[in-house]
Amino acid sequence: MPLELVGFVLFAGSMIGTPGPANMVVMASGARFGFRASLPFLAGVILGKQFIIWPIGVGLLAVLSPDGVAFQVLRWASIAYILWLAWKIAGVRIVAADTGAVPPRFVEGLIVHPLNPKAWAMVLGALTNFTDPGAPALLVTAAAALVSRLREVAGRPFCLVLLSGDAMLAA
Description:
Layout: H1 5-16, H2 21-33, H3 35-63, H4 69-90, H5 106-112, H6 117-129, H7 137-170
């Protein structure tokens, strides 16, 4: 197996379910505009993650040796960033703001992850910590992309439905 599957699935689930730009907009959109109106943004978010997984997986894993210094630096830097981000998020206060009356669109969802440092750190952390050192980069990347897509499809709509509240019922 190119990935240590159990650890990777648990890691991906914990990262997908933690606060970040995509999750916050998905929840806010669901609460404000309802489930159906929020689906295009959600689809963009799910597809947009693939724009990070493939370049990192095929690019970095193909070039870097798992035993090399650069690989280890990326591994520990991504872990440190995720822990720092968790520490910062723990003290955040959420303030309601009026962002207009239009639900976010597919294209906006598509660019959330490529512009999000948490997503880059998550993918780097996953691919540098749960990768079989001897596995081909393409196989590792395909497995990571599939698991990530399945976790996102299963996890995010659940959050959206749960947090849509009255707006979902009115849609």
